[in-house]
From TrEMBL:
This is [acyl-carrier-protein] S-malonyltransferase. One of its GO terms (cellular component) is cytosol. Transmembrane segments: none annotated. Its EC number is 2.3.1.39. Coiled coil: none annotated. It catalyses: holo-[ACP] + malonyl-CoA = malonyl-[ACP] + CoA. The gene is fabD_35. InterPro entries: Ac_transferase_dom_sf, Acyl_Trfase/lysoPLipase, Mal-CoA-ACP_Trans/PKS_FabD. Keywords: Acyltransferase, Transferase. One of its GO terms (biological process) is fatty acid biosynthetic process. One of its GO terms (molecular function) is [acyl-carrier-protein] S-malonyltransferase activity.
Length: 159
């Protein structure tokens, strides 16, 4: 059993073999913790995926990875990729390593970012960001209407 996602204060997702997860859930409940089983198809972001990570790496070797024009964060590091980083190796590790979402958001905040846009049909990540920094400005884009509203709101903030 391993920490798979460090999402925000008070929320860690674990991953691993089914038996270990069930035992951990039992202990969590006994300690009066909130325990919510996630519906997933595998023990993602755990060492169980190490073999698959090497297969992925072999495929990545075939890909041409250009220098990033914008800042791109590595969930393995919780910070931006640097020119010296082996991008393929970090992507390989991502399959079997914890997602450091909270660390990534805190790093962005420390660099002066205070506005976040979640794209997709859910507000899950927005909720995590709010728990990390209650003062963060958060927008959700899930369709054309919400995209237009977000663009307008961002234009107003600029003025």
């Amino acid at each position: 059993m391993e920490g798979a996602n460090y999402n925000c204060p008070g929320q860690v997702v674990i991953s691993g073999e089914h038996k270990a997860i069930k035992a951990s859930m039992k202990i969590g409940k006994e300690l009066k913790g909130m325990v919510v089983p996630l519906k997933v198809s595998g023990p993602f972001h755990s060492s169980i995926y190490e073999k698959a990570s090497y297969k992925f790496y072999e495929e990545l070797k075939k890909a041409n990875i250009n220098k990033f024009e914008k800042t791109v964060y590595s969930n393995v590091k919780g910070s931006p990729y640097e020119e010296s980083d082996d991008v393929r190796e970090l992507l390989r590790q991502q399959i079997m390593s914890s997602v450091l979402f909270e660390k990534s958001i805190r790093d962005l905040i420390n660099r002066g970012v205070n506005t976040f846009i979640e794209v997709g049909p859910s507000k899950t990540l927005s909720g995590f960001v709010k728990k990390i920094d209650k003062d963060a400005k958060i927008y959700n884009v899930e369709d054309l209407k919400s995209l237009r509203e977000t663009v307008e709101s961002l234009k107003l903030e600029e003025n």
